[in-house]
UniProtKB/TrEMBL annotation:
It comes from the Eukaryota. Residues 20-32 have a biased composition (Basic residues). Residues 37-54 have a biased composition (Acidic residues). Pfam families: MULE. Signal peptide: none annotated. Residues 279-332 form the MULE transposase domain. This is MULE transposase domain-containing protein. Residues 1-57 are annotated as: Disordered.
Length: 347
């Protein structure tokens, strides 16, 4: 064919038509079963197959969780990031609709969700080849059963994720409150033991998050000094009581614990030196699982707006903590400026 083109010396349109026919022939060869010798591993075939894969991926919808999962539309071909995401979607759907759905088959390559005895609803998802994502292959989104009050797939882990924000705001959340809110929101009854396990899982998750943040305070202080040269940052730690004994138990966590931190940025310090000599002192407790108090020294700028001078986080509002905070403030502002200043506490 190439020799005919060279001899005929026709226009470019003939060459374009020839390229189209070559693409069609490559597509036909892809559909048939070819051996390696016949060109199965050729570059042309790989390019066409990759384009087809990309086109097929774009056609599949991606899972998006709704606030009200009772309005969720199950569609064949939907992609899920992980197996747990698919199971969580089925669990949320079962809770919001009050259906007795269970997972009779769960392994590394497939998950099958089936409604109660006699119901037609089912969903079957499999793991994608060479990927971590999962795809919903077959589904029958039609129920022929009645709603129930006892949802077996509502595990403590799922409840912990739902009530995580409530537990973070109030670590002393009562178990009866979790039970009543579950009944009022989804019309599902849970036992007191399940509510207790859900709260404990949420507390472990929250405390673990706060613990990791406290461990990064050392890096945070150095970052403040790098980005704000001339600032004052003082971090004070202490050993736990178990480490202060003569023979500490090595099986326990004996790493230093957070005690206090004092921060005075250079820009705030220089701004206060040019403002009226008036300082307001106040403190408030922190609503975190580890508690603590926030101590603040405020000033007033020419626009009668609050100007933060320095702040500190301490374990409690005591005479010792206030003395430590004001001693650091004297070192930064200077005794001459503070002697001419008027102090006002608690606004």
């Amino acid at each position: 064919m190439h020799q005919d083109i060279r001899k005929s010396k026709k226009s470019k349109s003939v060459v374009e038509k020839l390229k189209k026919t070559q693409k069609v022939s490559v597509g036909k060869r892809k559909s048939s079963r070819l051996s390696d010798d016949e060109g199965l591993n050729s570059d042309e075939l790989e390019e066409v197959s990759s384009e087809d894969d990309e086109a097929s991926k774009k056609k599949f919808p991606v899972h998006k969780e709704l606030k009200d999962m009772s309005m969720y539309k199950w569609e064949s071909g939907t992609l899920y990031a992980t197996r747990e995401e698919f199971k969580e979607a089925v669990t949320s759907y079962a809770v919001h609709t009050g259906r007795k759905i269970k997972f009779p088959v769960v392994d590394n390559v497939r998950v099958r969700a089936k409604c109660g005895d006699g119901c037609e609803w089912f969903a079957y998802a499999v793991k994608m080849a060479n990927e971590d994502s999962w795809q919903l292959r077959t589904v029958n989104d039609h129920h022929s059963c009645n709603t129930v009050f006892d949802i077996k797939v509502m595990k403590s882990k799922w409840l912990a994720k739902v009530f995580r924000r409530k537990v973070e705001e109030n670590p002393k959340l009562k178990l009866g409150t979790i039970q009543s809110r579950t009944l009022r929101k989804w019309n599902v009854q849970i036992s007191r033991a399940k509510a207790f396990r859900a709260k404990q899982i949420a507390l472990v998750d929250i405390n673990g998050t706060f613990r990791e943040q406290y461990r990064r305070l050392y890096d945070y202080c150095h970052e403040l000094l790098c980005t704000n040269p001339g600032s004052s940052v003082k971090l004070k730690v202490q050993l736990p009581p178990a480490a202060q004994t003569e023979h500490p138990d090595t099986s326990l966590d004996l790493s230093p614990q957070f005690h206090r931190i004092y921060i005075c940025l250079k820009a705030c310090k220089e701004s206060f030196m040019k403002c009226r000599p008036m300082i307001g002192l106040d403190g408030c407790f922190l609503k975190t699982p580890y508690g603590g108090w926030l101590l603040v020294a405020m000033g007033w700028d020419p626009n009668d707006q609050m100007l933060p001078i320095a702040y500190a986080v301490v374990d409690a509002e005591t005479k010792d903590s206030w003395t430590w905070f004001l001693s650091n403030l004297i070192d930064d502002i200077g005794a001459e400026k503070l002697l001419r200043s008027t102090f006002m506490s608690d606004q």
